[in-house]
Amino acid sequence: MQELFNAVTVSKARALMSRHLSLPVRAEKMRIPSALGHCLLDDVTAAIDVPGFDRATVDGFAVRAGDTFGASEGMPAYLEVAGEVLMGQAPDVSLEPGRAWRIATGGMLPTGADAVVMVEHTEELDERTIVVTRPVAPGENVIRKGEDIEAGQLVLSAGHRLRPQDLGILAAVGITEVEVRRPLKVGIVSTGDEIVSPEQTPGAGQVRDINSYTLYGAVLSNGGEPILYGIVPDRFDLLQKKLAQAWKENDMVLLSGGSSVGVRDVADRVIQSLGRPGVLFHGLSIKPGKPTVGAVIEGKPVFGLPGHPVSTLVVFELLVAPLVRLGRYPEEDFLEFPLRARITRNIRSAAGREDYIRVKLVLRQQELWAEPVLGKSGLISNLVKADGLARISAEKEGVEAGETVEVKLL
Amino acid sequence: MQELFNAVTVSKARALMSRHLSLPVRAEKMRIPSALGHCLLDDVTAAIDVPGFDRATVDGFAVRAGDTFGASEGMPAYLEVAGEVLMGQAPDVSLEPGRAWRIATGGMLPTGADAVVMVEHTEELDERTIVVTRPVAPGENVIRKGEDIEAGQLVLSAGHRLRPQDLGILAAVGITEVEVRRPLKVGIVSTGDEIVSPEQTPGAGQVRDINSYTLYGAVLSNGGEPILYGIVPDRFDLLQKKLAQAWKENDMVLLSGGSSVGVRDVADRVIQSLGRPGVLFHGLSIKPGKPTVGAVIEGKPVFGLPGHPVSTLVVFELLVAPLVRLGRYPEEDFLEFPLRARITRNIRSAAGREDYIRVKLVLRQQELWAEPVLGKSGLISNLVKADGLARISAEKEGVEAGETVEVKLL
């Protein structure tokens, strides 16, 4: 039980790592829209107003709002139709009092006009005259010049990860090329004398490598560039050689496997031998995932992840994913476990330890419920059946059926 | 207001589309791990048991559980240490009663052993003898042969989209190549005489194309292959030519723009002219997103999306995203809006209409709250500020501050 004394919480582990981390920022120019999913290197500022003119948001008539004040069904306002706005063109003359211009959604208001009356609130008396049966306020049914984006305004911040709508706003301000941060390279090494590659047929006592592939997928789906280094036997010299190579060639190294004490010791000593400051914590006060080693070697994170597939993915989500995505741990982390669901059964948990339960999500009477997928953390099938991970915080000694838990989709 | 009568609900729109949809299934062989994010074409079945042997899940001693029954601190069981299991190897002799084999996590139990005693619950008297201070039940601290996956078992179902852990299970059963569904090709056309490309400086009355880029990103992040067809003027012949080309070259077509009545009519007639059965609905009973046209032309979906950037993305999420991801609308859709958050202010909504509100998510006293990002649906900046979309169902006439709403992250 000695290890439990050294085990640190996830937030402590993050703090320890953060103190020594120094992940490189490599710039790459990318055109939109291919920059999707990449992180901006610099703030993006708009050079122009969007829209560049007062723009109608409905079909109808551009008017001076004052000309419609007091208008009603019984006492409509009469306006002279003086012209029609053509899409994509500036009206050539300004709107005189008492007049209206026909305008379609997206059209540019003529000078003098300050609102648009919806066509539904008008009637055409003849080709030159409409009656307006409802007043409009100044600015009504109009997006004003610069109302969406003002020239000089910060549009997106440095570090922001580009979503579809962010590509849209870049297009809106005419930015078709951005500098983004290149994906971090993550070396993945598996260790264990019992591990064989998926191509091989396992002999007695052997199992195929699962973690390399789960981790590859997890790195990729967080925007990183995974590189597989294969399986290394549990020998100090071989492991050291492979890890040193992976460390040199990547921004981050994930060593998986070695849940037995002997192998863990080797992995530990190897990581420690790579450089300074070395191992920062042995053991996390979470379940599953306790036998985790966290190290930083000359600014690059190196993680010794547990051998069990479930534990490995849990620790990846908690400690590795944010680094791959952002190059750092976020300050606000409440969106890491954004779902709230009620648990379907009692789950016991030790106080002082965070528990992560694999759950299937189901809907019962319009409420989201989390159904624990029970089973040992060594089972990959367990993880495949799960929709998400539910967190039981360290302060609690478990949750009772019906209690709300925080869930992250897997 | 005539349109409102024709407007259909989202589920009605899905049903109408589904009746005529026939999206192609093109197979592609892919190696794991690069198959991440792709949908399996066929069921995957395990050819072997995983693990292929009874496997220790802790460090300790492989024993016959019966030999430890009744053991306690005061009355321990004495066992003779008869050997040590080497990782990745089959123990060569079986375990005799009264004996124990040293074993590490992941090791193979010798024949005769049915449980593992944790090293923490033993003491070594001498090199040949241990005392066991706690009994183990048969199967304790063991993953039995086939307990994770049984030979013949369905591992992943046809249509399943591969997540990181799914790559892991494929590796576990030795499947290194799978047939996946090729990404669906989605042609994107923008229309509007006022729209210019992002490379151009907009003149008076002109705005840059936003939707092509938002939609490109949205298609890509749902696993599709987007193809941009640029901007077409609002003329029947030009639009027909371009849409016919996009329809021919793709599995699905998205036409965006044309929120004004005149342009909508042209878009409508053009889509109708492409083939059978043609337009299935005009107008959705949602806000924003009402002016949407849904069509199927010889099995391929064609959508006329609203011109406003917010409306376009809302409709994309509701009607297009599932088709791009899965090639169909899912039966269970409760995970489409998986988050629950309390809304920070009253929002009015018309009964009979689903409302989609852009929200920022914030944490207040450990609870998730959704803060509406107010503003017109024509504003792209609105969408960039939002973390998600909150849904107000058609039955409700709005929500009051503090009420819980369903949210989808954007």
Structure description:
2 copies of one chain form a homodimer. Chain A folds into 4 domains: 2-26 and 182-326, Molybdenum Cofactor Biosythetic Enzyme, Chain A (3-Layer(aba) Sandwich), CATH 3.40.980; 28-48 and 156-180, Molybdopterin biosynthesis moea protein, domain 2 (Alpha-Beta Complex), CATH 3.90.105.10; 55-143, Molybdopterin biosynthesis moea protein, domain 3 (Molybdopterin biosynthesis moeA protein, domain 3, Beta Complex), CATH 2.170.190; 339-409, MoeA, C-terminal, domain IV (Beta-clip, Beta Barrel), CATH 2.40.340.10. Chain A has 410 residues and is of the alpha+beta class. In chain A, helix 4 packs parallel to helix 7 and helix 5 (236-249) packs across helix 6. In chain A, the strands form 8 sheets. Chain A has a 6-stranded mixed sheet, with no helix packed on it. A 6-stranded mixed sheet of chain A has the order 17-14-18-22-21-19, sandwiched between helices. Chain A has helices spanning 2-6, 10-20, 164-172, 211-221, 236-249, 261-274, 309-326, 380-385; strands at 27-31, 39-40, 44-45, 55-56, 60-63, 77-84, 99-103, 115-118, 122-126, 129-132, 142-143, 154-156, 177-181, 185-191, 195-196, 207-208, 225-232, 252-256, 277-282, 286-287, 293-297, 300-305, 339-343, 347-348, 354-364, 367-372, 388-392, 398-399, 404-409. Chain A is built from 8 helices and 29 strands. The two termini of chain A are 31 Å apart.
